Amino acid sequence: MTCNEIENRLPAYLEDLLSPEERKSITGHLASCPRCSRSFAGLKKAEELVQGLGEVEPPPFFEQRIMSRVREEAAQRQGILRRLFYPLHIKIPIQALATLLVAVLAFHIYQTGEPEMKQMAPLPIPLTELGKGKGTADSPKTLVSPSAVTPVKRAPAGDLPEKNQRRFVAPPFENGGKEGRMADSRAPIREERPSAMKPAAPVMAAREKDVPPVSAEALDKAQERAGKQDADKAPETLLPEQKRKERMADTGAAAGESRKTMSAPSPSRITAAAAIKRSVMDLTIQVRDTDVAIREIETRLGQVNARIIERQHRRGSEFLKAEIATQNIAALLDLLEAIGRVNLETSPLVVPDGNVTVSIKIVSHP
Amino acid sequence: MPDNPDPVDAHNRTIADDDAGFVARCRRGETEAFSVLVRRHQKKMLNVAYRMIGDYDEACDVVQEAFLSAYRAIGKFRGDARFSTWLCGIVLNHSRSHIKRKAARSRREAGSLDDPVKSKDGSFLNEPRSQEGSIVERLEKRELEAKVQECIGFLDGEQREVLVLRDIQGFSYEEIGVMLKLPAGTVKSRLFRARSALKDGLFRVLGDLR
Description:
The structure holds 2 protein chains of 2 kinds. By secondary structure, chain A is α+β, with helices and mostly antiparallel strands. Helix content of chain A is 61%, strand content 11%. By secondary structure, chain B is mainly α. Chain B folds into 2 domains: 17-109, Rna Polymerase Sigma Factor, Chain: A (Orthogonal Bundle), CATH 1.10.1740; 114-210, Arc Repressor Mutant, subunit A. Chain B is 64% helix and 0% strand. Chain B has helices at 20-27, 31-53, 56-72, 83-108, 135-138, 141-154, 157-168, 173-180, 184-206. The longest helix of chain B is centred in the middle third of the chain and has 26 residues, at 83-108. At the A-B interface, helix 1, helix 3 and helix 4 of A face helix 2, helix 3, helix 6, helix 7 and helix 9 of B.
């Protein structure tokens, strides 16, 4: 090996990282070469000097200085979250955002609950008129909470003809009435539904008492008279009418029978509502056995010339959608009542000669 | 924590680290746990930075920044090395950046008359080359250390790092490899070149080292 090669290997030699042969060779060379020997000594001395370098001490309060910076940093991080809620300049946008959120939610809730809200519209006068005529003989016992119906009864008379037409729904009265009767502890909104659908109720009451059926013309006349009536008289006349409905609940057959009469007044009332396009009716029927019930319902739909559009099965419930002529709705509801308990979810505003889409949800209710 | 960490076993990556508990507390947001880590490592980190930079005050600033960086990034510390090794890597990074900035600044400014000037062959022209007597006799210890530090400062940055970490701070080759992301063999060869270069530099500055 040349002196240069030896010199390059001296650090490894110093750390004892060479093979025994190389080590022996270098040891021999160092003994005979003053230049390499001096280089080796210099290397050892350099290492010694470096390792002998003293340690410097941190300045006073070095740890405190570092930690104050670290705490500052930590406070800044926490501050981001805290500032969102504490200082006003950030809080105001949050409040504004919250207000907006509440407004959007309220609008959404209103939209969702729209059908029920509409049902709370003023009570048609013809009902009160008829109720007064036919029902004053009845004792005024009632289970219906007056607070639930009062707003309806006090509706301005001027609004009545139009509202009456808009609210007219042929089949749902009985269902709504039943609900009101069966659960008198229910929320007023549910109670008011039958009241909003008054036109048929007097007819049913008349039927029940074996009075001659009320014709469409008679109803129209009654309506006209109602327009002239003072609206304040309505509360007096409503109670007997409600009572009559209760009695109907006691005798299911009577209810079914009275419902049949509804097809008579319907067309005449609907005429004015011809422009209203909504023609979907959602109803739920509670039955013991959905499989049996769905077959029966299909048969019944056939009997009233309804055309089944859709059939679905979802989470233990059956869904049927059918198209039916407006005049057959009442008949269909009668037939369905015989199968199970019918609850009307939304009622259609129908066109007189048109069709209505009936969406039936069949749920099991042992 | 031991002053000289045990070598990391390449085959067994389980590393006993006395700092692990405090690191975990810091990660959970306990700022005060970090003060223990600062107390434990401030001196070693300061010495690494000082030997790298060669200026005490600047080293203090660099270490302070490095600790702050470590605090910010402690969530990223995965625990596959000792905390001290990870922290030393951060100090080295900050030291390197500082040296670069300083070099750029000094290029823009006029060089000091006291600065050693390299000749074409790399020797230092303004250094005395006294050959008389032993170096211990010629120079006070403090002066000697200053000269050694100066020579360390003239080393290439990569060589300086391994020399400071191994010969001054006593880190193992494996730990240095982790810090510098280099294989242990490369660390060794770089260290040997650093030692030879330092010896040559000391010859030039101090004369015969005997």
